[in-house]
Amino acid sequence: MPLFHPVSQQAHAISELFAFVLVLSAVVFGGIVIALSVILWRFRHSREDAGEPRAVFGDARLEIVWTAIPVVIVALLFTLTVGAMGASDPNAPPDRTADVVLVAHQWWWEIRYPAARVATANDLHIPVGAKQLVELQSADVIHDFWVPRLGRKIDMVPGHPVRLWLTADSAGTYFGACAEYCGAEHAWMRLRVTADPPATFASWLAAQQRPASPPTAANDSAATQGATLYSSLTCVNCHAVQGTADTARVGPDLTHLATRPSLAAERLPNTPQNLRRWLAEPDVVKPGSHMPNLHLSDRNLDLLVAYLLTLR
Ligand code: CUA
Fold first, then answer.
1. Fold that domain 100-209 belongs to in CATH
2. What is the predicted pLDDT for the residue at 4?
3. Whose CA is nearest to atom 1 of ligand 1?
């Protein structure tokens, strides 16, 4: 039953178990409501009644029946659950290295492709139909990874990395979210997973591998001034731009910021206006965010936006 529109074998296992439990619960609930209604009607008080009804104590046959039915149901649910657990979270060989490392931060997702030496944020790409082994870590508090259409939830506990197979059987975009309350902006800790056809994925990854090309005064003087301003501000204490001296990993890697669909973990669509707004008042756009308000002048905001838009 395609209850959550699962697009992977792992998600199918969970969806089918959920659907079965839901139907079974509905049958049990319906049975109880019917039995209760019949009993209420049949044994209702009527005027012709003389005194109290006869009291009955114990009925071995009934007791066996109402013990056996729940035992069978619980045993069935147990068996199906163990099966779904195995199918939704198959073991990975211990020597297999992770294809993707996902690090949860308050309140964004750091994404690394170790083999390709690529770092990005909040915009996870995977090749369609290929099993990807994802290592999940946390940089601060307990978070929880959950992309419902792709599979199970899994806690991300600091100092305790875990691994998970991630697969999408059809190309598309699947949204996920942090599913463990992790502070003020938990609700805006969203993740976008895009399953690309293999060739598209390969070219996306190759584009992400390239370092940023610095703007030149000849083609864009605002961007060049923006780049100078960027490196003189505290931006460089938190953010990396590959191809420059900035390698900090506190905040998202900005090397290809302009190619990402959203800002601040899906808080805003990535448009020049929104980027400007995010730089101007991060504390209003996402209260509690660790991105500081630098109280930039209008002119400096324009220069910074011009520079950041060149990070493609
Ligand atoms: Cu991270 Cu909730």
1. Immunoglobulin-like (2.60.40)
2. 75
3. 143
